[in-house]
């Protein structure tokens, strides 16, 4: 299984991507194997300089404290025996080496398993290069924050990254190791691993990010085509004439609307006159003369 990670700059910008070597970063993590290798590594770190003196090495005690018989006490040959105060130490620790022999294949397999576990958890970051002009712990902390590194981190550097080494070494929660010092115990103790393209183990494939294309210029508006208006006679009129015709059409609609309003007003006036005439006829009928004639005239 191949794993591809983004390669970022010191500021966190994506510079490209890299395909990690499956032989290093896609290995099954075996707990028993890593335990054995870590135990051997911690044992080899012991100095083994502890030392105690036996009864032969303690000063004094050369004379027999009292005679062999006749005292009623247990026989003694020296006052520097282990059961005496100031005497030698029986079976005490002596300087020795705690180093264990571990095959190289087991050591590498445990390291690959630890690296694969960090990759599977998404706690591995790859940087293009460290671009410190001068050693700066503040810039180093800002770089880790830009990469999203939290918790205890391990930064793997090459021998040429002297400025980066001086920048990261003062951060208490960051361990700085060189490429040749990478070990399974250090990887398991760190929450995050930060590599550069140069220090990434194995044969990794690098792919550079495509360059950003400039934004296209806004398209110019297409020239407006002259619309053809067909008149009642079937002749074509240009765009300018169309506008005039449209305006004249709108002005022609206004008088038509005004005419309709006038006709409505005349109809309303005629109705009002009819109501007044009928009212007058009713009044004359009440007087008693000419009922039929007035009503017929109305």
Kindly describe this structure.
The protein has about 300 residues and is of the alpha/beta class. Helices cover about 40% and strands about 15% of the residues. A seven-stranded mixed sheet has the order 5-4-6-3-1-2-7. Helix 4 (about 135-145) crosses helix 5 (about 160-170). It is elongated, with a radius of gyration of 53 Å.
Output mean pLDDT.
79
What sort of overall outline do the alpha carbons produce when their principal axes are compared? elongated
Indicate the radius of gyration in whole angstroms.
53 Å
**In CATH, what is the class of the largest domain?**
Alpha Beta
- Report, as a whole number of angstroms, the end-to-end distance: 109 Å
Tell me the major beta sheet.
Answer: 7 strands, mixed
CATH architecture call of the largest domain = 3-Layer(aba) Sandwich
Provide the descriptors you would attach to this structure in a database record:
298 residues, alpha/beta, Ribosomal Protein L4, Chain: A, 2 domains, seven-stranded mixed beta sheet, two-stranded antiparallel ribbon, elongated, disordered C terminus
Give a concise summary.
The chain is built from eight helices and nine strands. It has 298 residues and is an alpha/beta fold. It folds into two domains: 3-45 and 96-208, 3-Layer(aba) Sandwich (Ribosomal Protein L4, Chain: A); 229-281.
């Amino acid at each position: 299984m191949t794993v591809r990670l983004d390669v970022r700059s010191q500021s966190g910008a994506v510079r490209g991507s890299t395909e990690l070597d499956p032989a290093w970063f896609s290995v099954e993590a075996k707990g028993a194997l890593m335990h054995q290798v870590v135990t051997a590594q911690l044992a080899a770190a012991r100095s083994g300089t502890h030392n105690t003196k036996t009864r032969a090495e303690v000063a004094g005690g050369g004379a027999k404290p009292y005679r062999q018989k006749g005292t009623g006490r247990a026989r003694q040959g020296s006052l520097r025996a282990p059961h005496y105060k100031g005497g030698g130490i029986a079976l005490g620790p002596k300087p020795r080496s705690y180093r264990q022999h571990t095959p190289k294949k087991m050591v590498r397999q445990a390291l690959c398993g630890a690296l694969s576990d960090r990759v599977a958890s998404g706690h591995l970051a790859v940087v293009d290069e460290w671009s410190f002009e001068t050693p700066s712990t503040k810039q180093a902390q800002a770089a880790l924050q830009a990469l999203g590194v939290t918790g205890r981190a391990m930064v793997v550097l090459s021998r040429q990254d002297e400025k980066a080494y001086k920048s990261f070494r003062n951060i208490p929660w960051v361990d700085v190791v060189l490429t040749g010092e990478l070990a399974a115990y250090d990887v398991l103790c760190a929450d995050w691993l930060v590599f550069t393209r140069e220090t990434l183990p194995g044969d990794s494939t690098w792919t550079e990010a495509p360059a950003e294309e400039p934004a296209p210029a806004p398209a110019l508006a297409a020239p407006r085509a002259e619309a053809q208006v067909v008149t009642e006679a079937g002749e074509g009129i240009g765009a300018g004439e169309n506008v005039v015709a449209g305006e004249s059409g709108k002005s022609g609609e206004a008088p038509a609307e005004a005419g309709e309003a006038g006709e409505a007003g005349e109809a309303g006036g005629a109705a009002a006159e009819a109501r007044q005439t009928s009212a007058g006829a009713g009044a004359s009928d009440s007087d008693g003369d000419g009922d039929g004639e007035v009503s017929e005239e109305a």
